[in-house]
Amino acid sequence: MPDQLGHHAAPDPSGSALRRCVGDPAAFADEHWGRRPMLRPTGDCGDLLDLEAVDELLSVRGLRTPFLRVAHDGKLVPAERFTGGGGLGAEISDQVRDDRVLDLLAGGATLVLQGLHRIWPPLQAFCLDLAGALGCAVQANAYLTPAGNTGFATHYDTHDVFVLQIAGTKHWRVHEPVHPDPLERQPWGGRADEVAATATGPAYLDHVLSPGELLYLPRGWLHAASAVEATSLHVTLGLRRPTRYTIAQALLDLAGADPQVRSGVPLGLDLTDPAQLAPHLAATVEALHDAMRKADPAEIARHLRAGQWTAHRPAPVRPVAQAAFADSLTGASRVRLRPGLRFSCVDGRLELPGRVLTFPPGCQSALQAALAGPAVGVKDLPGLDDLESRLVLARRLLREGVLVPADE
């Protein structure tokens, strides 16, 4: 039996970020997750983002597109209207120009700060915690809308969202789906007429969201929001949860290994003629059925790793500090697994996103202890003969970004 260790393969419902959002995770899973909207108070969320932070991002952080989008009257504003060159010594042509942003904001435009789970530390940590609890990737965008303006017309998203109201108020109108549980390749634009018609009818939810309130929307639910009395700021957390279609795609990819699925069709067959297609369609369905009955869960899981493991990056590593820590490592040094890292370790073969590390057989017990999650002292790594062997292993894992100093 192989000695195997995997991390973050199952969600952790005890995550503090999830409890902050939904209260009772079990009740949320039973009553709302993927089923219907939820509205609840969460308390002040200014520690995650506030208006001062938005000004900092727009004015001194040197943002480039696509970290900022601008919308006006329901349409996106071309990036060249709010970006420009980076100035002397920076050959950058798409850096955000704060003076141009000021002008657009004064004219009623909505600002969309994208990818904040990558560039704003408080949301970076919050989204990582939330991703661990939900078992799916989480992204964060912020929407700043002047009073009385609507950023986008009624639409639906192809992923679930948590909306956290930070400042000001926003009037939300939510309607039931016209296309339940849409896939990512099924955006609302393909059903624009249905969406517009449904939006004129009675709303499922009509509510003015105040600071400290959260709105959960499953994918497919129609919504539009407009600022009310003052500039509104809210954060939208996009929850990119996998679907059964995700599994079906993996099954289809692996079915290509079956000769019956790969076999060609007869000479001259017109696939656009239903009568000619019918017998070959039936044979194809049968071949797929036979191939999928033989599907191995372990093989499907390995195939899915490439997409699932890279959908949300682990906690950041500080390269300079990490290198210095590795260089000065002693037996008294304490290390821990890098938060959010996805991996599989079987008999000294450590599979990581995009790469594989191999270790001598005698390292397995020490690897198990290092990768288990809690902090561990280098001198306490088991199964190795001497301190130098423990230092070599820990140093390598630090330099590969697998472990981090325990005090971080």
Task: Outline the secondary-structure elements.
Layout: E1 4-7, H1 16-22, H2 25-31, E2 38-41, H3 51-59, E3 68-72, E4 75-76, E5 83-84, E6 95-96, H4 98-106, E7 110-113, H5 116-119, H6 121-134, E8 137-145, E9 160-167, E10 170-175, H7 192-199, E11 205-209, E12 213-217, E13 222-227, E14 232-240, H8 244-255, H9 259-262, H10 274-293, H11 297-310, H12 319-327, E15 334-337, E16 343-346, E17 349-352, E18 355-358, H13 364-371, E19 376-377, H14 387-399, E20 403-405
Antiparallel strand pairs: 1-16, 2-12, 3-4, 3-7, 5-6, 7-8, 8-14, 9-12, 9-14, 10-11, 10-13, 15-19, 15-20, 16-17, 17-18
Task: Kindly describe this structure.
The protein folds into three domains: 11-240, Cupin (Jelly Rolls); 244-296; 319-405, Outer Surface Protein A, domain 3, CATH 3.90.930. The chain has an eight-stranded antiparallel beta sheet with strand order 2-12-9-14-8-7-3-4. The chain has a four-stranded antiparallel beta sheet with strand order 1-16-17-18, with helices on one face. A three-stranded antiparallel beta sheet has the order 11-10-13. It is α+β, with helices and mostly antiparallel strands. The longest helix is centred in the last third of the chain and has 20 residues, at 274-293. It has helices at residues 16-22, 25-31, 51-59, 98-106, 116-119, 121-134, 192-199, 244-255, 259-262, 274-293, 297-310, 319-327, 364-371, 387-399, and strands spanning 4-7, 38-41, 68-72, 75-76, 83-84, 95-96, 110-113, 137-145, 160-167, 170-175, 205-209, 213-217, 222-227, 232-240, 334-337, 343-346, 349-352, 355-358, 376-377, 403-405. The chain is globular and about 70 Å long.
